[in-house]
Amino acid sequence: MTKSSLAQEQIIVGVDTHKDVHVAVAIDDHGRLLGQCQVATTQRGCRTLHEWALGLAPQVRYGVEGTGSYGAGLARLLAAEGVSVTEIRGPNRKLHRDRGKSDTIDAEAAARAVLAGTSRVVPKAGNDWVEQLRMLRLARRSAVQARTQAINQMHAVVVGAPPELHDALVQLSRVELIRCACRFRIGRLDTTASTTRWTLRLLALRHEALTAEINGIDQVIVPLLAHHAPTLLELRGVGPEVAGALLVVAGDNPQRLRSEASFAALCGVTPLPASSGKTTRHRLNRGGDRRGNTALWRIAMTRLNCDPRTRDYVQRRTTEGLSNHLRGGPDRGGGWRPCGAGSPDPPIAGGERSRDRPPPVPRAVFRSPSSLRRRGGRRRSRWRHRRSAASRWRPRVGRPWQCRARWTGGRVRAAGRHTPT
Fold first, then answer.
1. Would residue 4 count as lying in a domain?
2. Residue 48 burial (CB < 10 Å; 0-12/13-18/19+)?
3. In a domain, 250, yes or no
């Protein structure tokens, strides 16, 4: 451990967490380096780290990497002590290129991220019933994946089975195949047919065991949700699977989400600005928790089929000339305008086109090289391309359809050589 002799009232400690050791670096409010510390990942080591930080200043703020994995124990201990803890994302790649990579550099970067305010995420508490739900869902998810793998392997074995076994099993449904395979009597494994039957029996028994395991987990999850979140289960389109996914995304301390917008950003359903110069547009959010994103998609699709309010909304928006596909640019009213059906505009174009003005005439098409025609005919192109008549068009090697061309309303003519417009 190293320690500065300067007296401080408040410091910031960044922690780079690992499996065996935690490396911490302390800085003051002006960004001056005060010291560093390395402790074990045990409960005693975490307390030693906190005592070292309190020896530097009476008030400490922490920036911890990996609060959901290696730093979970440290984050819970600090939260129990009433200390401010900020979750830090992975290390900055640009910093690694400029200064190199070490545990001390990463810990210092975590502390400076808290000081600059670029990281303000409050970690999940992980100490209540939502953490229990997360553990149960983790076990259930792995069991479902293993069960799916088992039935897929059974179908693959039946496809390549000996003719007499293949003809008897290929027409069976999934349930009938499992029941039939469980009843196989295995003698000596001296032929291909007997070994195939034994393999099918093993996979069928594994499938039945995993099904029983999944049902047992469901018998624990459903009462847990019904006791703690009955109002959520009463919503249309929300079942135990969807409710569990949304609750795990929010965590045991949902007060860390300050608004509906922050929860939408956490699930990756907020459009992100992608404007530049005179172009004003937005793009879809590819980040966020993908399981939470899937849960919201299931709710929307379910309500679209059975909820009158959702169907009336979609009908009203369709009558206005809008489609169900979200478009990147905002409309004049501040909402998000879907891409109009049959619009000749490219999907990446931004901004709002006046509804009083007729749609623009589609741009001229270009003729792609013969290699493009051999690769499947018509391709989409979203970019504009201007070159002189004397210049020679050369497609990218291996990806000739990614050429730059004028937008043609979604279709590109495949012909001989490029003809500039």
1. no
2. middle
3. no
Burial class (CB in 10 A: 0-12, 13-18, 19+), 24: buried
| Domain end residue (candidates: 55, 81, 116) | 116
Q: How far apart are CA 83 and CA 24, in angstroms?
A: 16
Please answer whether residues 381 and 405 qualify as being in contact, where contact means their C-beta atoms are separated by less than 8 angstroms. Answer: yes
Rounded to whole angstroms, what are the CA distances from 328 to 349, 381, 408?
Answer: 8, 17, 19
- Domain hosting residue 96, numbered range: 10-116
Q: Which tokens is 347 given?
A: 């999907």
End-to-end C-alpha distance for the chain, whole angstroms: 69
Residue 306 lies in a domain: yes
Task: Supply the pTM of this predicted model.
Answer: 0.69
3-state secondary structure of 163: helix
Inside any domain, residue 37: yes
Q: Any idea which residue has 């004028």 for tokens? A: 406
Query: How many CA atoms are closer than 13 Å to the CA of 229, on its beta-carbon side?
Result: 24
**Residue 334 sits in the same domain as residue 410:** no
Cα 208 to Cα 149, 201, 292: the distances in Å are 13, 11, 29
Q: Of 336, 354, 372, which residue is a domain's last? A: 354
* Tens of pLDDT, residue by residue, the chain (421 residues): 655 545 578 899 999 999 999 999 999 999 999 999 999 999 999 999 999 999 999 999 999 998 989 999 999 999 999 999 999 987 778 878 888 889 999 999 999 999 998 888 889 888 889 999 999 999 999 999 999 999 999 999 999 999 999 999 999 999 999 999 999 988 888 889 999 999 999 999 999 999 999 999 999 999 999 999 999 999 999 999 999 999 999 988 888 888 888 899 889 998 889 999 988 888 888 888 899 999 999 999 999 988 999 999 888 988 887 655 543 333 333 333 333 333 333 333 333 333 444 444 333 333 333 433 444 444 444 444 444 444 444 444 444 444 443 443 444 444 444 444 4
Give the chain's domain count: 4
Q: Which residues pair with 301 in a beta bridge?
A: none
Alpha carbons within 13 A on the beta-carbon side of 224: 20
Q: Please tell me the chain's helix, strand, coil percentages from 3-state DSSP, rounded to the nearest 5.
A: 45, 15, 40
Give the domain CATH number at 102: 3.30.420.140
With CA atoms as reference, report the closest residue to 87 among 101, 105, 69, 60: 69
